[in-house]
Amino acid sequence: MAIGSDGSQTATMKREFGMWSAASLAFMFVSPIVAMYAIFSIGLATVGPGFWWGWVVCLAGQTLVAVTFGVLASRWPFAGGVYQWSRRLLGAPYGWAASWTYSWALLIALSSVAYGGAFFIAVLFGLDPANTVVRTGLAVGMLVVATAVNLIGRSAVKITSVACVAAEVLGSLGVGAYLLFFGRLQQPSIVLEGLHAAPGTALMMTPLIVAVSFAGWSFLGFESASAIAEEVREPARAVPRAIVVSLLAVGALVLFTSFGIIMATPDLAAILASGQDPVIAILAYHFSPTMVDVILVLFIIAFVATLIGVQASVSRVIWANAREGELAGAAWLRRLSGEQRMPRNAVLVTAVISIALFIPLQNADMNTVLIAFTTTGFFLAFLFPVAALVIAYLRGRWQPSEPTFAGRAGIPCAFLALAWLVLETVNVLWPRGTADQWLLNWSPVIATAVIAALGLLAYFTAPAHREAAKPITAPLTEPDTALPTL
Questions:
Q1: Which residue has the higher pLDDT, 486 or 340?
Q2: Distance of CA 249 to the CA centre of its chain
Q3: Cα gap 374→221, rounded to integer Å
Q4: Which residues contact 306 (CB under 8 A, 6 or more apart)?
Q5: pLDDT digits (tens, 9 = 90+) for 278-328
Q6: Mean pLDDT computed over 136-158
Q7: Which residues cross the membrane (predicted)?
Q8: What's the pLDDT score for residue 11?
Q9: What are the domain boundaries of the chain?
Q10: Is 368 helix (H, G, I), strand (E, B) or coil?
Q11: Cα dist. 249→165, 222, 258 in Å?
């Protein structure tokens, strides 16, 4: 049994994942297919082929964040990583705020990924993907499937992660390689098209800055390996590696596959003028209708797998909060069920909330709004532990008793990661729509304010244990002998 913040014994989950299982879950969460195809068409239409460089910049920035998270995960390998790290660095209230922000980012991500995947289901079955009601119904169906898998248990999640990797190999690596080597129609210089800014263009409206704002969506979720840290064997070593490996693997696939698709673009201007989805049009140009359908099925598998990974992550974060008594209904939420001791109640709550989020967002800009919500939420959540580590170091309170991931390079990475997160958060929040597109311009800011207000209400009304967090000199983790193992 693990020890709660109040000294009481609390339930623990079985350690059934290894490093590669944790990395696969994070890979499934980020998913090159979801990371790329959910925003590729938006990027091509907004910036052009030069959008590719937005991914390059974001991958570099997020690698700094991943290394910083690896440092923290090697110090405190507990479930609900972002929450646990923030709490132990700057105290319980700060940790609670981090967890609240991160939980909502994940919940909105569930809705966003489901809505993005519903587009490909609609195309596959000849439905109208522009019909918000149709697409929402398909998204709800995807969430139901993901919830069922997570309720079954870890074995189902592991099987799904294998299916996800297979779908990625064929749908990302396979498609990208075929188009690059057999469908190439352009010169490599095409990836520079669209990056030129007209004289007098404001800095925040320049093509590369805009590309980076959209590309921020693509490299989120690598931290999910830390969310299941208490289900991983030798977590202090395995989890940091899983975080970094999953991000770099996804990043490499996104850059390779997107480059192959861009090189195989027949006439982007004509495609955009026709009103077709650019990615679907490019695939249809090079593949038979049957093959396009097969590729769409692979896309759908990847989107469902990502939903499963996201839901597994957010349910563990909610469970970790409930274990500390920091949520209303904590006794019910922290309950584990079955021989596998699964947080099924927390899983069900995530499904209900993510489905309910569709109700107030029924409009033509729903996909773009959800992407903006998700990206903003994640970057704000990432800021909590990274800023806390920098502050703790400056105060002289970061003095780990054992070597941490990345060694001496960890702290410099944390400072650079903090600068990157601040700049990208401002970039994502920056209003770029026309004057009549107020929803696109201000919805992320409004949503952030609403979630913050709800957080204050929840914090002061929940029957939480609000004593100070464990001091920063607390042991790295509880002895493995105190935890149930296989």
A1: 340
A2: 15
A3: 11
A4: 28, 29, 30, 31, 34, 113, 117, 164, 221
A5: 999 999 999 999 999 999 999 999 899 889 888 988 898 888 888 877 788
A6: 90
A7: 20-40, 52-73, 94-127, 133-152, 159-181, 201-222, 243-264, 294-314, 345-363, 369-393, 405-422, 442-462
A8: 55
A9: 19-431+439-461
A10: helix
A11: 11, 10, 14
Q: How far apart are CA 148 and CA 126, in angstroms?
A: 26
Give, as one character, the DSSP assignment of residue 485.
B
Label residue 417 by pLDDT band (50, 70, 90).
very high
Q: Concatenated DSSP letters for 278-309? A: HHHHHHHHHS-HHHHHHHHHHHHHHHHHHHHH
Query: How do residues 252-266 score in pLDDT, each as one tens digit?
Result: 999 999 999 999 999
Structure tokens at 176: 């990208």
| Residue 389 to residues 73, 168, 319, 380, 384, Cα–Cα distance (Å) | 12, 34, 24, 15, 9
Number of neighbouring beta carbons within 10 Å of residue 290: 8
Question: What is d(CA 65, CA 126) in angstroms, rounded to the nearest whole number?
Answer: 41
Q: Which amino acid is at 357?
A: L
pLDDT score of 1 more than 60: no
3 state SS of 153: coil
pLDDT at 376 over 90: yes
**Class for the domain spanning 19-431+439-461:** mainly alpha
CA–CA gap between residue 73 and residue 71 (Å, rounded):
6
pLDDT at 12: 62
d(CA 269, CA 276): 11
Strands 9-10 and 2-3: antiparallel
Question: Looking at per-residue confidence, does 179 or 470 come out higher?
Answer: 179
Rg (the chain; Cα; Å): 22
Residue 326: closest CA among 14, 87, 107:
87
**485 - beta bridge partners?**
15
d(CA 262, CA 41): 11
Q: How far apart are CA 377 and CA 204, in angstroms?
A: 20
> Residue 266: which region, alpha, beta or left (left: phi > 0; alpha: psi -120 to 50)?
alpha
CA pair distance 392, 401, nearest whole angstrom: 15
pLDDT in tens, 317-365: 888 888 877 788 888 998 888 777 888 999 999 999 999 999 887 777 7
Rounded (10°) angle between helices 32-46 and 154-168: 50
Interval 426-479: pLDDT, tens: 999 998 877 677 777 888 888 899 999 999 988 887 655 444 444 444 444 443
In the chain, the amino acid numbered 453 is A
Instruction: Label residue 478 left, alpha or beta by phi (over 0 means left) and psi (-120 to 50 means alpha).
Output: beta
Measured in degrees and rounded to the nearest 5, phi and psi for residue 327 equal -135, 150
Give the amino acid at 271.
I
**What are the strands, taking DSSP E only, across 184-328?**
none
Amino acid (one-letter) located at 282 = I
- 70 pLDDT band (50/70/90 cuts)? very high
7 SS3 class: coil
